[in-house]
Amino acid sequence: MSRLLEEFKEYLKEMNQYDHVTGLLQWDMQTTVPKLGQAAHVDALTYFSTKSFEMGTSEKLGEFLEKLAQPAEYDALDDTWRFIVKRMKRDYDRNKRIPADLYEAFVRAAAESGNAWEEAKNASDFSIYAPHLRNMIEMTKQVIGYTDPGKDVYDALLEQCEEGMDQATIDRLFEEVKTELIPLVEQITAKKMPENPTFHAYADPDAQRRVQWLLLDYIGFRRDAGAVGETEHPFTTNFSSKDVRVTNHYYETEPLSAMFSAIHEGGHAIFEQNVNPEYDNTVAGSCCYMGVHESQSRFYENILGRNINFWKPIYEKLGELLPQFKNVTLEAFEREINRVENSMVRTEADEVTYCFHIILRYEMEKAIFYDHVPVEKLPELWNQKMQEYLHITPENDAEGILQDVHWSDGSFGYFPSYLLGSIYDGMYLEKMEEELGSVDEILADGRIGEITKWLNEKIHWYGSTRTPKEVIAAVCGKEVSAQPLVRYMKKKYTRLYGLSEEA
Amino acid sequence: MSRLLEEFKEYLKEMNQYDHVTGLLQWDMQTTVPKLGQAAHVDALTYFSTKSFEMGTSEKLGEFLEKLAQPAEYDALDDTWRFIVKRMKRDYDRNKRIPADLYEAFVRAAAESGNAWEEAKNASDFSIYAPHLRNMIEMTKQVIGYTDPGKDVYDALLEQCEEGMDQATIDRLFEEVKTELIPLVEQITAKKMPENPTFHAYADPDAQRRVQWLLLDYIGFRRDAGAVGETEHPFTTNFSSKDVRVTNHYYETEPLSAMFSAIHEGGHAIFEQNVNPEYDNTVAGSCCYMGVHESQSRFYENILGRNINFWKPIYEKLGELLPQFKNVTLEAFEREINRVENSMVRTEADEVTYCFHIILRYEMEKAIFYDHVPVEKLPELWNQKMQEYLHITPENDAEGILQDVHWSDGSFGYFPSYLLGSIYDGMYLEKMEEELGSVDEILADGRIGEITKWLNEKIHWYGSTRTPKEVIAAVCGKEVSAQPLVRYMKKKYTRLYGLSEEA
């Protein structure tokens, strides 16, 4: 190893210490910190994010990257370090244009906006949040003005979340989804499925925690490299492949919620736990493409978790932990976990109407950044679109525009990733069945480990070293298309709801 | 405010950021981090502790303190900042003599030793821990050699934990305790108290968590400035008066354990939550005297929590949360929580024999630092002393010398603080009853808030600005003595065990 590379690695190690504690501060802010302790955490977060930003945009780092990109050094690097140098150089050139004081103000504003969002949601009062949202939108535009001068702001945001994606591509893919799924949902919702109160009966939160561990263990979450916290809104975060954390909530009368959150976040976590550990603490490790990431959480949650065969090997155990399920046949359970209906809240939506929740948010974000609709008009626009796609109107903003945390910390352009993830899943599923045979049979046999292994080897291992388009090309050998997802949904719901085959 | 003072405050603010994240890393290492994530946390902890140490021993800080100690600046300071400057100057002069690489090695060794202790305890194998303990002893001697050259090492350690305390004073106080309590315990243990299996029946951990909150709320723990975590060994930590955290464990068949841990840690926490908030993030805030700190946790746990009157206002509620207590009279409950017997584990011991657990550890520490007994002889010495004071012998080292975490991170000299705390409690109790009237009556009336207020105003508010001797002088107006504690115990246990009055 050259002396330069050695010094560069030392530099990265120090930079990583700052990222390590900012990650920990964020984890703690979500899971533990008391109300009055928030402000000190925000101060520390601002301080250490700024330190990390300074190191990530310093002259010294610029020199390292400049020198390492020269043939004399670059040619001697292995593939991993070539990727790291190239990727960091690109990000460096973009980020060093952001003024340090703007970055610091952005970090602080995001933390404060997060608190305001929470308060607004609890009070169901958009006006508490509006000035913060306006501020986050304006600051986001300013930041993009520096990182991607001359580029359409929303395209730049999409590119940040899912490299290679832009409005033109997403418009095409989402149009395919709309064309096919709108009539499918109409057909489904014309059929009424009876309610079963068992699914909304009291379920001991402690037993729900045990079910969560049953599920996490079952899908392959590694306890020695993972932890679980409790938050209102479940999420996954990681420090490296060796420390990956998920959170969950435990609604006393909605046990399915924690179960599917566990599988969803578990999917994210299994991804991170199985990235090549040599990439730990570099830009090569930890997948930074949100669509690719969501494709894994959603593959576990929907393609696997909402398949009756997933439950066959563990259904008895589930009944032992949550006795109410003893009175429910596996077939009734399957119908319940695939109940399709137009509903208010994205995170509780079924996998079919979920698509419309995303399309709505995508259109909202285009309205914000492309059409410049003012913040105070957004709740009304939200409600209009809810009517258009889901034929219902929120009773208040808490179950409407305030339901999601994302915009509060400036994560604009993230929402489309969820649907892109499902679109990728349709493609993975077809390829997986070509290579491994029927997923139904694998699941029914309790061989879910084979599926996880396939995903580990084809996708997880590469971390961030493959862009979304490269992942799809490597795994499926074709361009991205929504057709496989649509085929999967039509086949599944035609059977489940006894629809006519032409649907 | 002078420009110098302003710059000094900025400097402290930055230094505090490092302390903030080292505190958070330690909290997370105890409560959450998965096995494979430990190493990265140790790295970060070492990095940021070292940063903090560098700032705490820098030339720049030395200059600030030198200049602020000059009359021109010092005379213009208020009392708080005079204390801060004096205290920091004293600590600076001591700490700057420690070589930076020794400090870094100490922090890392302490973290590794903590892991080794845990492994050794789980395996009940002292040999896993022995080399780490030897190392911590040697490094501690080295550090003290720099901070307190020429001073007796163990006296220096005692002084660090409880300013103003030395072996001579502690020998005198502990001798008073031994003289009076050895015959008392003999009298008590001659009487057999029947076992009641209800106290060892299954108690839902979730219900135990609810009981914990009942108790924390009842004694005045503020939720908006506090949080609760789960660890094998309960502890309290704080970032400021606004973020104070306790932990607990929930043994399925030992509900009393979590209840009294909640009250004990709650006592520590109430102390920290009620320090003058102007002292936050300075050496004036957060009480650094361990005996004074333990006096508060032990006042709540023992003087209040083991008093039947404490329970009168909440006993019905307790029965609702843990139904097994519905079948136990309050009188039987009182007897159980005051059951005195010689037992292996300090943290589970009653308040009387607890004293001997501490005297044993104090003598062990004197053996280590004063008599230089080698590490491999310590388990044998431990077991000898267990026989001498408690007339029992541990079956293995896990329930013997490995039971406590303290030595693993170099907290030598801490143990005496627990008994010093109880000794102070005896004195506080007598003074409190002089000023407020009968504690029995106050508790029975549900006026526990008056007791907390008294402790807040007399003790908590001052944080670290009063040394232990100053606290005792200000609150009680006399020298430290163990007689009030002895009087309290003799009176209480003579009644409870029906002993003859001369005991």
From TrEMBL, chains A, B:
<keyword id="KW-0862">Zinc</keyword>
<feature type="binding site">
    <location>
        <position position="268"/>
    </location>
    <ligand>
        <name>Zn(2+)</name>
    </ligand>
</feature>
<comment type="function">
    <text>Broad specificity carboxypetidase that releases amino acids sequentially from the C-terminus, including neutral, aromatic, polar and basic residues.</text>
</comment>
<dbReference type="GO" id="GO:0046872">
    <property type="term" value="F:metal ion binding"/>
</dbReference>
<dbReference type="GO" id="GO:0004181">
    <property type="term" value="F:metallocarboxypeptidase activity"/>
</dbReference>
<feature type="binding site">
    <location>
        <position position="264"/>
    </location>
    <ligand>
        <name>Zn(2+)</name>
    </ligand>
</feature>
<feature type="active site" description="Proton donor/acceptor">
    <location>
        <position position="265"/>
    </location>
</feature>
<keyword id="KW-0479">Metal-binding</keyword>
<feature type="binding site">
    <location>
        <position position="294"/>
    </location>
    <ligand>
        <name>Zn(2+)</name>
    </ligand>
</feature>
<dbReference type="GO" id="GO:0006508">
    <property type="term" value="P:proteolysis"/>
</dbReference>
<keyword id="KW-0482">Metalloprotease</keyword>
<keyword id="KW-0121">Carboxypeptidase</keyword>
<protein>
    <recommendedName>
        <fullName>Metal-dependent carboxypeptidase</fullName>
        <ecNumber>3.4.17.19</ecNumber>
    </recommendedName>
</protein>
<dbReference type="Pfam" id="PF02074">
    <property type="entry name" value="Peptidase_M32"/>
</dbReference>
<keyword id="KW-0378">Hydrolase</keyword>
<dbReference type="InterPro" id="IPR001333">
    <property type="entry name" value="Peptidase_M32_Taq"/>
</dbReference>
<comment type="similarity">
    <text>Belongs to the peptidase M32 family.</text>
</comment>
<keyword id="KW-0645">Protease</keyword>
